[in-house]
């Protein structure tokens, strides 16, 4: 195995100089740095980051736990986390919890063992108490966990408000909201709160149908289809506008309406939430939806975590709420 | 910091016994194991895998380099790699090369530094010579690199054959194939080879239009749309059947045809390749396409790499070609 001594010999400098270049510490002239880097390349020397991590107590690894990395919204979020991490010399360890509490707990254990520098937590099955026990820096997506764990999310309250207002302004008189499961206190529940408040403010009759918590099936479109048929179809005739808590659901509702000859948007108006890649690619219909920008959310999650890691003393927990906007499509 | 000595004290056993439990070496009675595990949990002790990796020379980390983790096909592939890795106690480091040779080279360097146990290489911009220099176990997706680097891919040759045959059997008399860039020798080029051979065998006039290599835009549907308009539209009237080398392209072609009042499938038949999540969710149209199963491909990539890592002496490079099938939709 090639060692730091071999690099020093090849470059014609001292071992200390090589060590300075590798660890980026102390003053090194440009020419000397080049000489050392050239020598490292010539004899194919890779500084052993495992050994360096032990010395420095930093691994430059970030754990990223998501419910399902295949879901278009999370796929986009992960990519943007990774791009930011790469620019700052971090790499990400990707974990799919599949919304199983046990798997999520296992991952946290594994990440602790691997001595990641911090965790971005986008999965939300474990009790908040479990996270509080973790001694690593954590940033959460879409969930308030504690005062010491900062969160990043889109402006769910405003998103719910503008979605509902848009339906009312488009002439709807009876509104339905299909929400995610409301029993875990996560930020997307604010979409339902905003929907109710806005309907009350405008004296519009409304109803909320809550999706049940479905394990292992997060990204399966088929499940949304079944849900619409079994839980929504019978009541649909009463409403002329529906705000769906995500785009996959909005699309499933649109397909159901089409199959059952319910004209969209004339008889039924539909608004989604996400504006994820599937929605952006989809040409027929172009969904009316609330855009939560996965690129900005990913960057904010990663930059918050890196700040916590690199400025342990000075960092004050700082939550980030990212703006949303209405994207007008053909379904309203 | 809690140490192995504290665990031994808490459990009332020797340090050697705790070490045996942690490293899963030597005989340990069931009761003793339980006692040690309970003690570890009680005082929140995580064995330091970094230190253990140094001793054992295994990190249980796998590098996964893809062009773009947001692309629906790769998002699905990654998820399935991760699920298999988790079952075998490995974790994955995710890297997006964005089809930039420099970034890909950087990643390989970073992965060497982090002492990953092996690399799954799904990005294909670097020269094959660069990979041969890497001393780690590598498995490649869709590319033959060398005799010592096993590859996994779908049966591109058969895929191209059944796609073309299906168009001919559906009555097409003039066929077009839109291929990916053919200048890098990757396995998906066999789709174009099979297309040409099948057309010749059936004496059907044909043409191949090659997509140029487009950086940083791998997952952007917009680019496929522009490509169809600029490079394909003018010639389209000559053909009654098109085999597209991926689903995103097939969808862009369908949308173009619809906008220009070209009836699909009556006047123009379209076959894609992938059957990725976007295609599966899409209801209108249901694309006719060749399914390459991302779940099986992901598992095969990961299991091949784990075999190479865990049986360094005995492993003989073993390439895997996964079956494809025609999914009949509404575009033929």
Describe the structure.
The structure is a homodimer of 332-residue chains. Chain A has 332 residues and is α/β, with parallel strands linked by helices. Chain A folds into three domains: 4-47, 434 Repressor (Amino-terminal Domain) (Orthogonal Bundle), CATH 1.10.260.40; 61-153 and 295-320, 3-Layer(aba) Sandwich (Rossmann fold), CATH 3.40.50; 156-293, Rossmann fold (3-Layer(aba) Sandwich), CATH 3.40.50.2300. Helix content of chain A is 44%, strand content 16%. Chain A has a six-stranded parallel sheet with strand order 2-1-3-4-5-11, with helices on both faces. A six-stranded mixed sheet of chain A has the order 7-6-8-9-10-12, with helices on both faces. The N and C termini of chain A lie far apart (66 Å). Chains A and B meet through helix 4, helix 5, strand 2, helix 6 and helix 11 of A and helix 4, helix 5, strand 2, helix 6 and helix 11 of B. Chains A, B: InterPro entries: Cro/C1-type_HTH, HTH_LacI, Lambda_DNA-bd_dom_sf, Peripla_BP/Lac1_sug-bd_dom, Peripla_BP_I. Chains A, B: Keywords: DNA-binding, Repressor, Transcription, Transcription regulation. Chains A, B: It comes from Alkalihalophilus lindianensis.
Short description:
The structure is a homodimer of 332-residue chains. The first copy, chain A, has 332 residues and is α/β, with parallel strands linked by helices. Chain A is 44% helix and 16% strand.
């Amino acid at each position: 195995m090639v060692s730091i001594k071999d690099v020093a010999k090849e470059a014609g400098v001292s071992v200390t100089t090589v060590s300075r270049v590798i660890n980026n510490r102390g003053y090194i002239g440009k020419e000397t740095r080049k000489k050392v880097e050239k020598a490292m390349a010539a004899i194919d020397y890779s500084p052993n980051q495992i050994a360096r991590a032990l010395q420095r107590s930093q691994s430059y690894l970030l754990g990223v736990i998501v419910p399902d990395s295949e879901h278009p919204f999370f796929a986009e979020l992960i990519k943007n986390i990774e791009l930011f991490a790469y620019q700052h010399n971090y790499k990400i360890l990707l974990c799919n919890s599949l919304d199983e509490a046990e798997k999520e707990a296992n991952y946290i254990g594994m990440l602790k063992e691997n001595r990641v520098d911090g965790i971005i937590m986008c999965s939300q099955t474990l009790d908040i108490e479990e996270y509080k026990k973790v001694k690593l820096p954590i940033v959460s997506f879409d969930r308030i966990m504690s005062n010491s764990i900062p969160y990043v999310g889109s402006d769910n309250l405003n998103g719910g408000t503008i979605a509902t207002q848009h339906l009312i302004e488009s002439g709807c008189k009876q509104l339905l909201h299909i929400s995610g499961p409301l029993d875990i206190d996560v930020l997307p529940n604010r979409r339902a709160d905003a929907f109710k408040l806005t309907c009350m403010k405008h004296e519009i009759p409304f109803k909320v149908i809550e999706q049940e918590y479905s394990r292992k099936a997060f990204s399966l479109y088929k499940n949304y289809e079944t849900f619409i048929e079994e839980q929504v179809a019978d009541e649909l005739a009463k409403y002329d506008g529906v705000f769906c808590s995500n785009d996959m659901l909005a699309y499933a509702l649109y397909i159901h309406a089409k199959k059952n000859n319910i004209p969209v948007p004339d008889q039924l108006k539909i608004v989604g939430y996400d504006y994820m890649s599937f929605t952006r690619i989809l040409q027929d219909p172009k969904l009316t939806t609330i855009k939560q920008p996965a690129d900005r959310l990913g960057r904010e999650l990663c930059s918050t975590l890196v700040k916590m890691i690199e400025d342990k003393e000075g960092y004050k927990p700082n939550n980030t709420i990212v703006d949303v906007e209405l994207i007008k499509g053909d379904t309203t």
